[in-house]
C-alpha cells in the first residue's frame, strides 16, 4: 500500500518537454494557417460587398449633361453614406459612454475597486521624517532623548527584602487558613 502511494507521488509527467514544444509549434502553425484563411475569406467578402454596392461606372458614350447627372447622383449617394456614418459614430459614442457609466455603477455596487500591487520598500525612519517634515528641517532620530529617566536605586528600595525561610511561608499559606489570610489581606488593601 505504501509503495503504491509513493509511486503515485513520484509519477513523471506523461508528455516530455520536447514533445510539448513540438505540439506547441504545431498548434501555432495551425493557428497561423487558419488566420490567413480567415483574412482571405474577409477580403473576398469585402470585394463581393463592394461589387454589389458600387458597381463599376460605365461612362463611355455619355454626353456632358448625362455625366453631370451621374455626378449629382454620386454626390447624393455620398451624402447619404456620410449621414449614415455620422449617425453610426454618434450611436457608438453614446454606447461606449453608457458602457463606461454602467461599469462605474457596477464597481460602486460591488464596493470593490482594483487595488494596485504594492511593492515593499525599505525606507529608514530618517528618510520618512525628512519626507514628512521637508528638507528644511534637520531630522535626528534620537528616540531616547524624550524618555523618562528612572533610577535603579529607587526601585530596589521600594521592594521589601524577605530574608525568611521560604518553606515557612509556604506552610503558613497552605490549606484554607492560608487562603483566608490572602483573602483578608486583599480585602484590607482594597478598603
TrEMBL record:
Gene Ontology biological-process entries: cardiac muscle contraction; skeletal muscle contraction
Q: Name the Gene3D superfamilies on file.
A: 1.20.5.350, 6.10.250.180
- Keyword entries, A-Z: Acetylation, Actin-binding, Coiled coil, Muscle protein
Which residues lie in Basic and acidic residues bias regions? 150-170
A Pfam family cross-referenced in the UniProt record is Troponin
Q: Which GO terms describe its cellular component?
A: troponin complex
Q: Which residues are in coiled coils?
A: 28-84
> What InterPro entries does the record point to?
Troponin, Troponin_I, Troponin_sf
Where is region (Disordered) located? 150-191
Q: Name one GO molecular function term.
A: actin binding
Which family does the record assign?
Belongs to the troponin I family.
Task performed by this protein: Troponin I is the inhibitory subunit of troponin, the thin filament regulatory complex which confers calcium-sensitivity to striated muscle actomyosin ATPase activity.
- Name of the protein described by the UniProt record: Troponin I1, slow skeletal type
Q: Please give the organism.
A: Oryzias melastigma
